[in-house]
Write a structure and sequence with these properties.
about 120 residues; about 65% helix
Length: about 120
């Protein structure tokens, strides 16, 4: 089988300003978490659809659809893992930044630590 360049299967997000119109999403929470949730777990539309389906069943005093509830529970577990990973990553990034500041400008490093301690 002949395949031209770039004609194979693609399983990655392609985000470029020239490929599609610009879209800015203002997340209410942590943008790093929100972006990963949408990319790796489920779109906002899917999540809202699951919640809507469950809410309607409850409002009609009908059984909650087991498959939908299972999807929502799995999403909740996956989101908890992402939040943990992003939190660990943020702590690592903060430590790295503090280490760089300490190496390059000890006086600013000391001032920053003093300010943060006095702010509490």
């Amino acid at each position: 089988m002949f395949r031209a360049p770039l004609s194979g299967d693609v399983a990655q997000r392609i985000i470029t300003s020239w490929f599609s119109p610009s879209l800015t999403v203002n997340y209410a929470g942590d943008p790093a978490v929100e972006d990963r949730v949408v990319a790796e777990v489920a779109s906002f539309g899917k999540q809202l659809g699951w919640l809507t389906e469950i809410a309607i069943a409850l409002a009609r005093t009908q059984p909650v659809p087991a498959e939908t509830l299972g999807r929502l529970e799995k999403a909740a577990r996956d989101i908890a893992v992402i939040k943990e990973q992003v939190g660990v990553s943020a702590v690592g990034a903060a430590n790295d930044a503090l280490d760089r500041l300490e190496r390059h400008d000890r006086a600013q490093y000391d001032n920053l630590l003093r300010e943060r301690r006095s702010a509490k």
